[in-house]
Design brief:
It comes from Pseudomonas soli. This protein has about 270 residues and is an alpha/beta fold. The protein has a single domain, classed as 3-Layer(aba) Sandwich (Rossmann fold). Helices cover about 40% and strands about 20% of the residues. It contains ten helices and eight strands. The chain has an eight-stranded mixed sheet, sandwiched between helices. A hairpin with a 2-residue loop joins strand 1 and strand 2 (about 10-15). Helix 2 (about 70-80) packs across helix 3. The two termini are about 30 Å apart.
């Protein structure tokens, strides 16, 4: 296990393979384990870097620092520590939000950007937005992490043949530190950088599951705001696309990375 300290927080990270650096970041309440079906494939061609976001996985659970911008600065500190230079970035859900923040704050550190089932803002503007937030906020505080994990697992992996995925997710979710989880959840609400994503110039791929929490139309709208972005929709998938459709996800990502990778001896496209 590799550990790096930034601002008093012990951040767990892993490295696999060789080649251009490729960062994979997980979502809220999860960890680097979410990428277990991607690492073997990606590490054949890339230097894959996994990090547990503060408050998650094997990283420490400090009492402060739970903001998307702070998570982004944690990542920057790690990349400087590892001397990676510009990286390809893939972020799922909250990891995608971190990716948007990183892209607008530190564009020189990106070769490419891949956002999976995420958005560049989470704003409470409408009555339905407030109802969604209140429901999630209440359930997260009233229920145990074990109960929340079981409910999410059933929603994300509803098919009979996905029983092992349900079991695995519920088991992993139960390991969450509730205080750190709630602080991370609160970090998402009212966060946003959508007004700045037109500045993102590097090759960008937005991957959307056809049954994600938010509609494809929402992704289409924000993809249109970025000058070098495109959308890929993966069928028969929900929010945890890398786990429920790993073969299609891996193929889609590898094709994008191949097109975005730096030809030998040339400069980064960003």
């Amino acid at each position: 296990m590799a550990v790096f300290e930034h601002q008093g927080c012990q951040l767990h990270y892993e490295e696999h393979g060789q080649g251009e650096p490729l960062v994979l970041l997980h979502g809220l309440g999860s960890s680097s384990q979410d990428w277990e079906l991607q690492v073997p494939e990606l590490a054949r061609q890339y230097r894959v870097i996994l990090m547990d976001i503060r408050g998650h996985g094997q990283s420490s659970k400090p009492r402060s620092g739970y903001q998307i911008k702070t998570f982004s600065e944690d990542l920057l500190a790690l990349l400087r520590h590892l001397d990676t230079g510009p990286v390809h970035f893939v972020g799922l859900s909250m990891g995608g939000m971190l990716g948007f923040q990183f892209a607008v704050d530190h564009p020189e550190w990106l070769r490419s950007l891949c956002i999976v089932n995420s958005a560049p803002e989470v704003k409470r503007r409408t009555r339905s937005d407030w109802i969604w937030w209140l429901k999630r906020w209440s359930l997260a505080r009233l229920l145990s992490v074990e109960t929340v994990g079981k409910g999410l697992a059933e929603r994300l992996f509803p098919k009979p043949e996905q029983a092992e995925l349900r079991r695995k997710m519920a088991e992993r979710w139960a390991r969450n530190d509730k205080r750190a989880y709630l602080k991370s959840f609160d970090a998402i609400v009212d966060w946003g950088v959508q007004e700045r994503i037109g500045q993102i110039r590097c090759p960008t791929l937005v991957i959307a599951a056809d049954h994600d929490y938010t509609p494809i139309q929402l992704k289409e709208r924000y993809v249109a705001l970025m000058p070098n972005a495109r959308l890929a929709v993966i069928d028969d998938s929900r929010h945890a696309t890398p786990l429920d459709q790993p073969e299609v996800f891996n193929q889609t990502l590898l094709q994008f990375l191949a097109a975005a990778s730096t030809p030998q001896g040339s400069l980064s496209p960003c």
